[in-house]
Amino acid sequence: MAKKFQTALVTGGAGFIGSHIVDALIRRHIKVYVVDDFSTGQKKNVNPNAHVTRLSILNPQFVPLLQKIKPDVVFHLAAQINLRDSLQDPLNDAKINIFGTLTLIQECTKLGVKKIIYSSTGGPMYPEQARMPWSEKIHPQPISPYGISKRSAEMYFHYAFQVHGMPYVALRYANVYGPRQNAKGEAGVISIFADHFMKGNPMIIHGSGEQTRDFVFVEDVVRANISAMDRSAVGVFNIGTGKQTSINTIFRKLKKMTQSSIPERHDAPVMGEVIHSALSSREALIHLGWRPTVKLDQGLEKTVAWMHKR
Ligand SMILES: NC(=O)c1ccc[n+]([C@@H]2O[C@H](COP(=O)([O-])OP(=O)(O)OC[C@H]3O[C@@H](n4cnc5c(N)ncnc54)[C@H](O)[C@@H]3O)[C@@H](O)[C@H]2O)c1
């Protein structure tokens, strides 16, 4: 079990999901190193018991640092995470998400790292017309640079495993939400709405609001990462609830929870936006023993409670 791993590196460990993984590893008495350039992550997210280096994974100093740390296991979350930004600047997206990831894979292979757990994505990976909830058996057809870069990274992981025996798990997340999510991003509709309600700022729902997403709570995502470390499974696994929830439902639930009187307003839909998405996690149940446990209402309450405290 976890005894195998004494030292972990978490890239992007100052970010939303990464910082929760850091906490979970420290609870298990694993020595944790964080490499993060703080482009979207924040120092205050990071557990004080972690060893933090502020550095981009693209910086030439990253490789010598990796050699010095010599981790047993790596959680790779550092990424260009914004789909719309990837449309504006595909080259920057590719530099971080493909070149940065490949550098990490090569170095980890040389160092004999025992496993890499990669944070991939579910929504942008699958063709929209495929039957939902989407399973890993559906052939990926990403059409955004972000989806393409995440898929490319998965393929390099597959290559490194096949050719060099470097074990990996790529977790394709649905829409992750929870405490520490940046309300300034584009993906975190729950944190954006909750933040607006709590500050009393009006907000606009793009389109009818009947578009749906599969919302998975961050604690469940952390458990998936820990199972991926503990289990011998290798490959790509969806991490979602399989359930679709509309943006209007999220708006109304959060409005009630925060006792807000902000009215529901809509504008034109965002061109090219995926209308519905949901992931089947059957394979994760079989191979990682993982299933989501946090119900949407519980997760929303925890998120709102954290925002209150903050
Ligand atoms: N949040 C979601 O719903 C979701 C869904 C699918 C996939 N993911 C993936 O999960 C991972 C974590 O996402 P998150 O939601 O926690 O976002 P986040 O922005 O909070 O975390 C990303 C972290 O990586 C750091 N970073 C970015 N570029 C870097 C670089 N070049 N070098 C070093 N550090 C760098 C950022 O400062 C940040 O701390 C990402 O790989 C993302 O693509 C997230």
From TrEMBL:
Domain of life of the organism encoding this protein: Bacteria
Location of the NAD-dependent epimerase/dehydratase domain: 8-240
Family, as annotated: Belongs to the NAD(P)-dependent epimerase/dehydratase family.
InterPro entries given in the database record: Epimerase_deHydtase (IPR001509), NAD(P)-bd_dom_sf (IPR036291)
Name the UniProt record assigns to this protein: Nucleoside-diphosphate-sugar epimerase
